[in-house]
Design goal:
alpha+beta; 2 domains; 8 helices; 35% helix; globular
């Protein structure tokens, strides 16, 4: 991250020189490097401000489900979705090998972020399976709720964007948390 400070605002350059580089302009000077909501993904594409429009009560609205997944990390590799209406599940088949895309824990961070986002935005999804040509990963709503003790604060009647940034996006900076959840939930 690079920080550009001026009299009127601070500009944060995040994921510098990567395909997921983005800027946050802080006109109110309310953030510091420690409190800035960060994500290893392109925030303009995958951030809560862009994906909240896909909030839906039911899995099975194919265009809504597909549009949400298109905005989430890993979509850049291509995918096909399958809906299991009986078990309220969602399967996403990505067109890439899992180990190929794991630089700087990109796979782990993406799976955790995607699962949390899908469970928060599609109310009745109970399980998600992520398929890659090398391996599959499965996660349930209950598992994600256990690892995000503030899940209910985020997912009230409406999604609380500030709490989403605080509890979900900021967890993407915590490599120990990512490794622990990935090892215990996705492995």
């Amino acid at each position: 991250m690079m920080v550009y400070q001026s009299l009127f605002c601070n500009v944060y350059r995040v994921n510098q020189n990567t395909k997921n580089e983005y800027y946050i302009v802080d006109n109110k000077k309310q953030y510091t490097e420690d409190t800035l909501p960060l994500t290893p993904f392109n925030r303009k594409k995958s951030g809560i401000d862009n994906i909240i429009q896909y909030k839906n009560k039911y899995v099975g609205n194919n265009s809504n489900d597909s549009n949400l997944i298109e905005k989430l990390p890993l979509s850049e590799y291509g995918y096909v979705i399958e809906i299991d209406s009986e078990n309220l599940g969602l399967t996403i088949d990505y067109h890439v090998t899992d180990w190929y895309i794991n630089e700087n824990q990109y796979l782990e961070k993406s799976l955790l972020y995607n699962a949390t986002s899908i469970f928060l935005l599609i109310d009745n999804v109970q399980e998600i399976t992520f398929h890659f040509s090398g391996k599959s990963y499965q996660v349930t709503r209950k598992q994600i709720e256990e690892y995000y003790p503030n899940y209910k604060e985020i997912a009230g009647n409406e999604i609380d964007k500030e709490k989403f940034n605080q509890y979900v996006e900021n967890k993407m900076k915590d490599e120990e948390f990512i490794q622990k959840v990935f090892r215990e939930v996705f492995a």
